[in-house]
Amino acid sequence: MEQAENIQTRPKSRFWEIDAARGIAIIMMVTYHLLFDLVYFGVADIAITSGFWRAFALTCACTFVFLVGLSLHISRERAIQKGVKGSALVQKFLMRGAFILALGCGITLVTWYVIGGGYILFGILHLIGLSICLAPLFFPLQKKNLIAGVIVLALGLVVTGTVGPLWLAWLGIHPAGFYSVDYEPLIPWFGLVLLGLGAGAYLYPKGRPLRQIRQPCPPVTNLLATAGRHSLLIYIIHQPVLILLMVVAGIIPPETFGIF
């Protein structure tokens, strides 16, 4: 979710393997959300909340969140090399995180209006935005973030299922019967961000790869990397596009939506 740059003309500004991994995750996400839409609108009967497709969705989300941490480490190292330190460095990540968090709040409003019950209260964008804001507190840990990540994930075993007021939903505590179509609370999901930060310190010290990875099948990996570089845009627009295509194709009747 960084600013898009050309992977061919700026080879040192991006790492194809990270962009390609993010691209695979975004394709998985679009695939899963297409199936979700088909089930939600009663077009198909697919068990998307259990078995293979549940594991598929978790793999996609975990990949995204882990790569957030990995990318944050690289971004921080590059900022330091450019002389951005102290409060300026913190402000850089606070501003970026606040922007993503604001987009998440926009998704909350849209889903509350469109689907009502099950609207996205604290989804993937909320998680990423808040994680970016919190990242400066954990940057100094470097490789020890792997330990911190395991601790947060373990804490999730305690928090998950805890009943409490709705305003604590961002932490993983919520009322009994709470349901959201996209829910990734800070605990345990921030643990994956910390694992990414720690892994980044190992694999990309000083923001440079520990070992260069040869790019296989450039036509395919370049396509995946392009999708990965535009993952935020794809995330924002993919659901309206999917639904519009299904309406145009006659899969979903237009009268399903009062806004059509």
TrEMBL record:
Keywords: Membrane, Transmembrane, Transmembrane helix. InterPro entries: HGSNAT_cat. Residues 14-240 form the Heparan-alpha-glucosaminide N-acetyltransferase catalytic domain. Pfam families: HGSNAT_cat. Signal peptide: none annotated. The chain crosses the membrane at residues 20-40, 52-72, 93-113, 119-139, 146-170, 186-204, 232-252. This is DUF1624 domain-containing protein. It comes from Methanogenium marinum.
